[in-house]
Amino acid sequence: MTDTKQRLLDGTLTVLGAQGITGVSARSIAAAAGVNQALVFYHYGSLDVLLATACREATRDRVAAYAERFEAVSSLRELLRVGRDLHAAELRAGNVSVLAQMLAAGQHGGRIADTTAEAIQLWVDEIEKVLDRLLADSPVAEIADIPGLARAVAAAFIGVELYEGVNPEGADRALASLDQLAVLVEVVDELGPLARRALKSRIKKVTR
Predict the structure, then answer these.
(1) Reduced to 3 states, what is the DSSP secondary structure of residue 20?
(2) Is residue 139 within 8 Å of residue 196, measured between CB atoms?
(3) Can you spell out the DSSP letters for 138-188?
(4) What is the average pLDDT score of the chain?
(5) How confident is the model over 143-186, as pLDDT tens digits?
C-alpha cells in the first residue's frame, strides 16, 4: 500500500473519532491526512469505499495484534480478561468512538453496514475458535450454539463499550456478571464423571 493511501486510511479514522460520521468529507479526511482532497477519489473512488476500507483494515490489524493472546486462552474467565484488556486498549486508542460512528452510519444498510458487520465478524471468528476449544468436552456444549454464543459475546462487549460512555459503573458491573457466568461454567466442568453424566442426561431431557 502506498504512503498516500495509508495516510488517507489513518485520516479517515482520525476524522471519524474526532468529528463523527457527520464530519466525514473528502476535505476533512484530506486535511487530516495532509494530502490534496482529489486523492480521496483517485485512490478510493468514493467516501463509502474509503470508510469501508479504513474500518476493515484497522480491524484486521487489531485482530492480528491479539491473535496470540486468543490462542493462549485456557479458560472462559481468561477469555473475558483478554476482552477487558482489549476493551481498555480500544477505548484509549479512540476506536470505540469509531465503532459507534460506523454502527450508527450502518443502520440504513449499504456498504458501511456490510463492512461494519464484516469487521465485527473478524472478532467473532476469533472468539468462536476459542469457545470451540474450551467447550469441546463441557456439558455446556450439549446445549450451546457455539457460533451463536460467539456472536453473543462479541455483541455483549460492543454493548458494554457503548454503554460505558454514559454509565462506566454499569458497564463494569455488566462485565463482572459475565465473569460470574464464566465461573459457573468452570464449576460445571469440574464436576466428577457421575455428576457430569447426570447433568448431560438432564440437559438432554430439558432440551428435547
Answers:
(1) coil
(2) yes
(3) SGGGGT--HHHHHHHHHHHHHHHHHHHTT-HHHHHHHHHHHHHHHHHHHHH
(4) 85
(5) 778 899 899 989 988 888 888 888 989 988 988 888 887 777 77
CATH 1.10.357.10-classified regions of the chain: 48-206
Q: Where in the chain is the domain with CATH 1.10.10.60?
A: 1-45
Q: How confident is the model at residue 84 (pLDDT cuts 50, 70, 90)?
A: confident
In the block, residue with C-alpha cell 451463536: 148
Distance of alpha carbon 170 from alpha carbon 101, whole angstroms: 22
Look up residue 192 and give its amino acid.
G
Residue with cell 492480528: 64
Of the listed ranges 25-34, 80-89, 124-133, the least confidently predicted one is 80-89
The separation between CA 114 and the C-alpha centre of its own chain, rounded to angstroms, equals 15
48-206: CATH architecture:
Orthogonal Bundle (1.10)
- 133: number of CA atoms within 13 Å, CB side? 14
pLDDT the model gives residue 194: 58
SS3 label, residue 208: coil
Instruction: Give me the architecture of the 1-45 domain, per CATH.
Output: Orthogonal Bundle (1.10)
Mean pLDDT for the stretch of residues 52-56: 89
Could you identify the residue written with the cell 465478524?
Answer: 121
